[in-house]
Amino acid sequence: MGQLFKNYIGGKWVxxxxxxxxxxxxxxxxxxxxxxxxLSDSKDINLAVVAAKKAYASWNEVPLPExxxxxxxxRDILIRDKQELAKHMTREMGKVLKETLGDVQEAIDxxxxxxxxGRRLYxxxxxxxxxxxxxxxxxxxxxxxxxxxxxxFPMAIPSWxxxxxxxxxxxxVFKPAEDTPLSSIRMIQALERAGLPPGVVNLVCGYGExxxxxxVDHPDVSLISFTGSCEVGREVAxxxxxxxxRVSLEMGGKNAQIVMDDxxxxxxxxxxxxxxxxxxxxRCTATSRLIVxxxxxxxxxxxxxxxxxxVSVGDGLKKNIEMGPIINEKQLKQVLNYIEIGKxxxxxxxxxxxxLDKGKFKKGFFVEPTVFTNVTPKMRIAQEEIFGPVVSIxxxxxxxxxxxxxxxxxYGLSSSIYTRDVNQAFQALTKMEAGLTxxxxxxxxxxxxxxxxGVKNTxxxxxxxxxxxxxxxxxxxxxxxxxxxKLQKAQIDD
Length: 494
Ligand code: NAD
Description:
Aldehyde Dehydrogenase, Chain A, domain 1; Aldehyde Dehydrogenase, Chain A, domain 2; globular; binds nicotinamide-adenine-dinucleotide; alpha/beta; seven-stranded mixed beta sheet; 21% strand; five-stranded parallel beta sheet
């Protein structure tokens, strides 16, 4: 039957009103049932929004440093339980234990970073154009925030949203990805145990088209913060646009690593392997294109293929495994389909390309690490997000051409250049259209205290992480304090 988990609404763990559940399977072994979770719909979302609305006023009475203290206590719990949380996460979504430990660590880092904001959340004072008048700005919370997250960072991404949202004084209804509800429940349990008052965070499990859509549509939700695919993000944004609801979007990427002819090739290969095959290529920042100078492309390709063939694939809980399974069958089909598209487009498959389904792989969604060469910039495999362990090598003649190819997609999340020439590095980092740029490092590896997000179709101008995250979860109020004792009129000649 599997363990039955519940929604968290108004400080209580409750099943879906309908009584229905859905199953969550281990993608490395589908005989392993991780648990059953409430199949929630608009009724459950409504109850959660009511609870969040009710808690809003009293939560705002809690001084910010005290809110930060609760988050710090939750951080201590995450630190204490890190190993166990990571094991559950690997079982739930497949990435290797080293990476799920990193995922929990990111939530710990975010908790530490944002709790400190409880003693800052600075506003400004500024002169007035009139005498005996004082002007200042303060940040105010927005209201009930609807948070919708994907499955590839099951605790890190929720932490980027839930923790800043509540620190700033908002209350939350959180709809985690249907593939990873367990890790989200674990994070909310840490907040509960840390003393978070009932109703401040409410968690509702369920599918996007039902529970997610109901959250977006709910009139009492003031803000939607969404991370996921462009396709869904577009729909979420247009609904929010109709309702004049605030919306922050973090979406897909088609990230590239440029390798120049003077690069340290060993280093560039290590970066490419980690960027392309880490998290089984299922990171929004994954390296999907390798744009390589023609003078080194032959050597680089040979080295990469040799290394890709050695990547050990398997159950992420087992020792020495470097790459786990794909998240689910639908995503597996998408990855295999893109591999076929690449072959039909005329790209040359150098290694990988097949599903692994024999022996120890029989019950899971495994694909070989895959490398294509002879890829041209306009091919679909060089343009569309694959979200799997598939990387394309594109040959270029110059830095200018490399940057042009880099910028030639609709996305703009992460970018990287390997070169020893500082002039080339600076040329690239000023001209590459991306929210994140790494010099002599792979496209993956964000840190919580820096702004995170992308340009073009990757986002809509917001940045999570860093001090910029509070711009999403607060709005500015300008305050004019007149202590002259008379009516003073701004801009009016007397
Ligand atoms: P997805 O868009 O399918 O789902 C994301 C979330 O949206 C899930 O919780 C899902 O249930 C919900 N959802 C689905 N349909 C909905 C609807 N109609 N209304 C409201 N909610 C709905 O994405 P995914 O497959 O979970 O994640 C992979 C995608 O996420 C990739 O495109 C990846 O690049 C992107 N991603 C982006 C970032 C970033 O920060 N830019 C980070 C991680 C993942």
